[in-house]
Amino acid sequence: MSAHAFPASHRLLHSTEFDAVFSHPTYRVSKQAFLVLAKQNAEGFNRLGIVIGKKNVPTAVNRNLIKRVIRETFRAGPLHQAGLDIVVLVRKQARGMAKPALRTLLMAALSGLASDVVAGDGR
Q1: Which of 10, 36, 70, 97 has its CA 20 to 30 A from that of 18?
Q2: Cα(76)–Cα(73) distance, integer angstroms
């Protein structure tokens, strides 16, 4: 498996996993184009879930580009082995943004989440 692989064990795949984060998020960070919710998990490693509505980003090409940027930023981001289930909700403002702008906003959101986790500032 390559160093850039994103195995299924590191993703939220089922609605029950998403619902657990949506119903009781421990951490919440909001930026212009993203809302990041997170909750501690028992796995010992971070898992990522992505929510992009067709209403917010109508074209599949743009949705896939945004998902790719989110995964790349998540892998390179400041959160390592924090044991969190993280859901990134993409807002309508992400629709026309370029990749560097998306990456910068998401990195800021993940950095904010990391500082909240370190400080223990849960909801």
Answers
A1: 97
A2: 5
Query: 18, 17, 25: which is closest to 122 by C-alpha?
Result: 25
Contact 57, 95 (CB under 8 A): yes
74-94 in b/e form (b: 16+ CB < 10 A) is: beebebeebebbbbbbbbeeb
Q: Which residues pair with 90 in a beta bridge?
A: 34
Look up the pTM and report it.
0.89
Residues 34-65 pLDDT 10s: 999 999 988 888 899 999 999 999 999 999 99
Q: Which two tokens mark 40? A: 């501690």
